[in-house]
Design a protein that fits this description.
Blueprint lengths: L1 E7 L3 H12 L4 E5 L11 E2 L14 H4 L8 H5 L1 H17 L4 E2 L6 E4 L5 E4 L1 E3 L15 E7 L7 H10 L3 E7 L5 H4 L7 H8 L4 H12 L5 E5 L8 H10 L2 E5 L6 H16 L3 E4 L3 E6 L5 E6 L7 E8 L10 E2 L4 E2 L7 E2 L22 E2 L6 E4 L2 E8 L9 H4 L2 H19 L1
Helix pairs in contact: 1-10, 1-12, 4-12, 8-9
The protein binds flavin-adenine dinucleotide (FAD).
Flavin-adenine dinucleotide binds next to α1, β2, β3 and α12.
Length: 417
Amino acid sequence: MRFDTIIIGGGLAGLVCGIKLQKAGQKCAIVSAGQSAMHFSSGTFDLLGRLPDGTEVESPLEAMASLPAEHPYSVLGVEKVAEYAAQAKEFFAECGIKVNGDASRNSWRVTPTGERKAAWLTLGDFTPPASREEKIGNKALIINILGYLDFNTKFLADSFEKQGTECRIASIKLEEMERLRKNPSEMRSTNIARVMDRDGIWEKTADQIKTLIKGEDIVVLPAVFGLKDASVVEKLREAIGIKTMFVATMPPSVPGIRTQMTLKSEFEKAGGRFFLGDTVTESTADEKGQIRNISTVNFNDIRMEADNFVLATGSFFSKGLIATPDKIYEPVFGIDLTYNEGRENWFNTNFWKKQNYISFGARVDADLNASIDGNKISNLYAIGSVTGGTNALYEGCGGGVAIITALAAADRILEKK
Ligand SMILES: Cc1cc2nc3c(=O)[nH]c(=O)nc-3n(C[C@H](O)[C@H](O)[C@H](O)COP(=O)(O)OP(=O)(O)OC[C@H]3O[C@@H](n4cnc5c(N)ncnc54)[C@H](O)[C@@H]3O)c2cc1C
């Protein structure tokens, strides 16, 4: 099997890169082992929420100048990052995904526990407050679905009340949900969303919500609507008739999974081949060190060949990086990584502190090329959270690094032609 480019990993980074390449006329394949971080996503993409020294960031593009040289944004150059950040909104719009937000100023998403975190692009479901302090309304009605445990109404009410919003908590009960409710492990966001997607159910939901409103100016709901497409979210908003705010739930993330599925179908519509549930196990290089082909579990001894390869396998969470007691390695190509020697430097025993291991990953140059034993591999690119030099969790930049490195790597590949 031969392609122009093979992408390993079909999460946010792999899909964005694949769509851009495929739409530009390349013949691409994505091989992806399984779920990605999108299944756990908050529904927002973060660009930069905090500097490595802990300084909170209001204007991501301005703050990037203070990032260390090894950060992927510094490696690409802040001007380039600004260009790709501007392209990203258009990219999602072309894929039929509505996003709001601006790279010049962070907005503040509400987390499932009611905290506020800096956000860049926010899926259309959400209406992030413009500041950390902004109150969501004067009187909020926080509504849950009876029996659903992954939406903590009390935490949300406590946090909204601190900002001066009077809150009331209520729940709705739908007979169509009763089969799920009999078994609490079935009462999960994706199962609820499947029921809500059925004809007539969101109308019933809206009717029940309307009868519960008693002078409130905002309704707060869990983001468990629209697994297939976001239209039900808009329809529900319109039917409720007052400001309606959806808040991310504990995983799985309905908006995240919808986005993943939409991007995958956009890639396939453009003619890309997506091999889901397959794992790339090893690669072969030629005498000049260029990668020639890869093998996968499902295709066994049938090699997949390409001119270029993109590694988008994620961090430890997705098994893009592996840690043993004494070393950290990248399992497909064995590329060079940036990481602290000495296991004691990998993590802080205080779980809540910054964890160094999250910043470990592929060492890349300005072309996003990876290296093996110090030798640049000019047809191998590393993108997304497999790249090192940034602590996505601490700095709040995971989505941004994934999208921007993906767009940049696609350009580098296209420039070669
Ligand atoms: C739980 C969690 C939640 C997050 N939430 C957010 C958020 O809300 N907002 C935000 O901005 N950032 C978030 N992040 C940061 C996140 O890492 C990035 O936003 C981004 O989604 C990462 O995308 P990725 O494509 O680089 O990696 P991933 O999403 O991890 O995808 C990697 C893919 O590669 C596949 N893979 C791995 N090895 C192989 C192999 N050998 N062969 C084939 N396939 C392979 C995996 O199965 C997976 O599908 C979150 C991260 C985690 C871990």
